[in-house]
Amino acid sequence: MWVLVFFDLPTETRTERKAASRFRKNLLDDGFGMFQFSIYSRFCPSRENAEVHIKRTKNALPKKGKVAVMQITDKQFGMIELFHGQKEAEVEAPVQQLELF
């Protein structure tokens, strides 16, 4: 299962820039990686684990801006076609993640 977080946050004022940076830092601290500038992704081994990370994302939402969270299966994620210009780019293989209890 993959969790994708899409966001469009205001950055007009210093306060808004700080809030946007804090939100991105929270995503990185929670194991998300930058897929594109405002899209972060994270592999989760189960739907229950995905729900934990979605809840953390919801708790870190900034006051302003738009945020969307989407869950897709590993098979669906593997069917993504990426392009750099007109050249097809290779999709990075998911990182094996070890969970400790």
Supply the key terms:
two-stranded antiparallel sheet; 4-stranded antiparallel β-sheet; single chain; Alpha-Beta Plaits; about 100 residues; alpha+beta; about 35% helix; about 30% strand
Provide structural commentary:
With 101 residues, the chain is of the alpha+beta class. It has a single domain (2-76), classed as Alpha-Beta Plaits (2-Layer Sandwich), CATH 3.30.70.240. The protein is 34% helix and 29% strand. The protein has three helices and six strands, in the order E-H-E-E-H-E-H-E-E. The strands form two sheets. A four-stranded antiparallel sheet has the order 2-3-1-4. Strand 5 and strand 6 (87-89) form a beta hairpin. It is globular and about 40 Å long. The model has no long low-confidence stretch (mean pLDDT 90). Belongs to the CRISPR-associated endoribonuclease Cas2 protein family. InterPro entries: CRISPR_associated_Cas2, Virulence_VapD/CRISPR_Cas2.
